């Protein structure tokens, strides 16, 4: 994509990435890609907001030059030091050696450790301003959303918020970067998955950031990933607000591991019993086939969560252990949780589920169902009781 004008002096100079398979080395983005959004304000003083992932630095710098010609870049604003936004700093500094790098007191130690850059730095604090001529920029600290140095930049002149990873999403922006030129609903799953995996652990800090930014007159939101919100910024603000408050809707996610089909059999029985009890939305996920990012994304959406796994040498099926690690990290507030296990000669998965319950402070529904081998009539009755308890709890 070419550069895109957002306001009179403000341009998008970001890039789209269809080469990277795993975002942060963990989260699949192979089908939809991801956008690294960066921006430039071409005022009396030129300010660039963030860089892009380093393997796209050539395209990024050419876009900057196409906007400002022979002018110099006076300032680089570093809202976030994660390398997908910062790893082209050295390349940009090489082209514009007099450029001042703006960050906060927690920005520059990370920059020194990552890139050995400790010159041309200008430290700002919460509420500080920068005059570019026509545009006045204001800086607001949003620590741990989702790194300690995270901050956002607000253009008080054009009412534009450069929001860093806040309000971001997976998914590239090929063809158009604006909300009103895209099917916004088609971005919801990518936005939820991004939030659950990247921001979910720090939902409390995300709420604090939303409250801090609430009084600002925000007419356009320019995040570091995903769409630019110029027509309906309230949509993405509301979406993030609901996610950071763990707001859910009626439905149940059943995530299970299975080696030879017995745990799958129990999961399918549970799904049928839930439907019989009037639960319209039941999502089944095999943890060996589905990346956990998709599971936690739907978990973030629906109130009910049932986890099932076989024992594995007296412990728990390893793929389920991986999911438990992530779910414990992000939390299960405003969720109802149930469990079932399977074993051949000795259980062990039950101990891991009990430990998870303690650590995650899960609101447990019904009794854990422990099946030995294939569920018999007695086991089926227990699974039905669990499904009925879950259905009643989420309604």
Automatic annotation (TrEMBL):
Regions annotated as coiled coil: none
Cited PROSITE patterns: FLAVODOXIN_LIKE (PS50902)
InterPro entries, per database record: Flavodoxin/NO_synth (IPR008254), Flavoprotein-like_sf (IPR029039), Metallo-B-lactamas (IPR001279), ODP_dom (IPR045761), RibonucZ/Hydroxyglut_hydro (IPR036866), Rubredoxin-O_OxRdtase (IPR016440)
GO molecular-function terms, A-Z: electron transfer activity; FMN binding; metal ion binding; oxidoreductase activity, acting on NAD(P)H
One Pfam family linked to the record: Flavodoxin_1
Domain Flavodoxin-like: from-to ranges: 252-391
Family: In the N-terminal section; belongs to the zinc metallo-hydrolase group 3 family.
Protein name (Swiss-Prot/TrEMBL): Flavorubredoxin
Organism: Eubacterium callanderi
Lineage: Bacteria, Bacillati, Bacillota, Clostridia, Eubacteriales
